[in-house]
Sequence to fold (177 residues):
Amino acid sequence: MGQLDLIMEFFKANPNRDIAHPEVVDWVVKTYKERTGKVFRDPDRGICSLHQQGKLIKVSKGVYRYDPNFVLHLNLEDFSPALKKQILKRDGYQCVICGAGEKEGVELHVDHIKPKDLGGKATLENGQTLCAKHDFLKKNFNQTSNGQKDVLTPFRKRTRGGGGGAHRLFGGGARRV
Fold:
């Protein structure tokens, strides 16, 4: 049994109902444990993934709905391996926020500046290198102004004149190259 299938099983049993995140997570974690004897590690990511695939409607923060009559066909673009290499090379194999990179043993991610579920394309201009920590923070802050302040303070302090990369992380117009 796949974890995403189990999440969809819950939503299909509750069609056209606005369901708060905790209710879904509680049921999925409990049911997965009962059926497999294993722990469901990241139901939050699964719910987000299903939303990005167009299978769930995000009603508001932490509230989702399954509508069997609503089918969204998103053309989500992932970076090709060659494009990932180009982006990593352009950014010097280091996070554009904190400067940490492969030399420090940090896991690097190639990130869409404008998220793909909001129409961001897999292009060199829309790509940036982030360490796992800053990629996680960007996704969790969902590009809010509060998130910008918290995530970008270290970067602004370390750059000449501050700026540049702040717009890159959160999809603004300026580019640090």
Q: What stands out?
A: Residues 143-168, 171-177 have pLDDT under 50 and may be disordered. The CA atoms of residues 48 and 56 lie 9 Å apart.
